[in-house]
Design a protein that fits this description.
This protein is of the alpha/beta class. It has 8 helices and 16 strands. It has 2 domains: 172 residues, HUPs (Rossmann fold, 3-Layer(aba) Sandwich), CATH 3.40.50.620; 123 residues, Rossmann fold (3-Layer(aba) Sandwich). It is 30% helix and 26% strand. The strands form 3 sheets. A 9-stranded mixed sheet has the order 9-8-7-10-6-1-4-5-11, with helices on both faces. Strands 13-12-14-15-16 form a 5-stranded parallel sheet. The radius of gyration is 21 Å and the shape is elongated.
């Protein structure tokens, strides 16, 4: 397994995180171009369910049980065991989703292993110098391509940068054990509180209706929610709307929020600042409703409706409902 490309996968409960399926798909194509093996790793208190799912994407998956991860912050609890496994099996490059836990894991492993890290990759291509990692920097104003100085490294991959695709043949899951050595101090999780919501997670939504400063307040978001319901989509928001307290942070899209890739992104009262653009620019179709014809979003939207969102959005919702009876 020396020289292989590894995917460190995350679990949501006993399910594989969507971002990890995307990273596995990217790693498969990268390994094919490099002529190297690709291996998945799931580490946690109960890794078997997610490991079984990951085997639908990768030919070989290692399942590492770390009991203390059940009541502690994931990276600190799991990283020493993962570092021991990496040192024993000797992969060359490790890929992980650029989620909150993924970023923590990458940083902790980098410190334990002494490896370099390239962050928030939007794509990776194999070259004579190893993986060439494309990254968006300065709020999306520039695209850079970087490589590692040596033959080892960790890459965090931006969610929704690639469509996940299962392999033609299921892989095998192998339970593994490793001596982790000295444990890191951990932050114990005393309580988990999940926000109750009937809305679909915006990272997985095919249709998103998003509101910005132009909706004017919490009441304006009722129009956004109504149109999202009519379209069967999820509700998103800009940072300005979240900072104003009009909608929870869990719905924020952009540089400091979620990265989304829906089939349709409908932006209501959103100017299209670069910080928001980096979170939704990969949507298949972008439709904007704005009173300002010179708003930045007009430069990259597929369709721009110049008008009052308080008139346009209800009219669209009414038309949709009339067609569905």
């Amino acid at each position: 397994m020396s020289g292989a490309i590894w995917v460190l996968a995350e679990a949501n409960g006993d399910r594989l995180a969507r971002a990890s399926a995307e990273v596995a798909t990217l790693a498969t194509s990268l390994a094919a171009a490099a002529g190297r093996d690709v291996v998945g790793v799931v580490a946690g208190s109960s890794p078997d369910g997610a490991a079984a799912e990951l085997a639908g994407y990768l030919p070989r998956v290692l399942s590492l049980t770390v009991p203390r991860a059940a009541d502690a912050a994931v990276a600190a609890a799991v990283a020493p065991s993962l570092a021991g496994l990496i040192e024993r099996e000797d992969p060359s490059f490790v890929l992980v989703g650029a989620t909150q836990d993924g970023r923590d894991m990458a940083g902790t492993l980098a410190a334990l292993l002494g490896w370099g890290v390239l962050v928030n990759a939007s794509s990776i291509a194999w070259t004579d110098d190893g993986p060439a990692v494309e990254m968006s920097v300065f709020g999306g104003r520039l695209i850079t391509t970087s490589v590692f100085g040596g033959d080892r490294g960790i890459v965090t991959v931006r969610p929704n940068s690639i469509a996940a695709a299962e392999a033609a043949t299921r892989g095998v899951v192998e339970p593994v054990a490793v001596d982790a050595g000295a444990a890191l101090p951990v932050v114990h999780v005393l309580e988990r509180v999940e926000e109750e919501s009937a809305a679909a997670p915006i990272e997985e939504a095919r249709i998103i209706v998003s509101g910005g400063r132009g909706v004017g307040g919490p009441e304006g978001f009722r129009i956004v929610e109504d149109l999202a319901e009519a379209l069967g989509g999820a509700v998103g928001a800009t940072r300005a709307a979240v900072d104003a307290g009009w909608i929870p942070y869990s719905q924020q899209i952009g540089q400091t929020g979620k990265i989304v890739k829906p089939d349709l992104y409908l932006a209501l009262g959103i100017s299209g600042a670069i910080q928001h653009k980096v979170g939704m620019q990969t949507a298949s179709t972008i439709v904007a409703v704005n009173r300002d014809p010179d708003a930045p979003i007009a430069e990259f939207a597929d369709l721009v409706v110049i008008g009052d969102l308080f008139e346009v959005a209800p009219a669209i919702a009414a038309e949709l409902r009339s067609r569905t009876g």
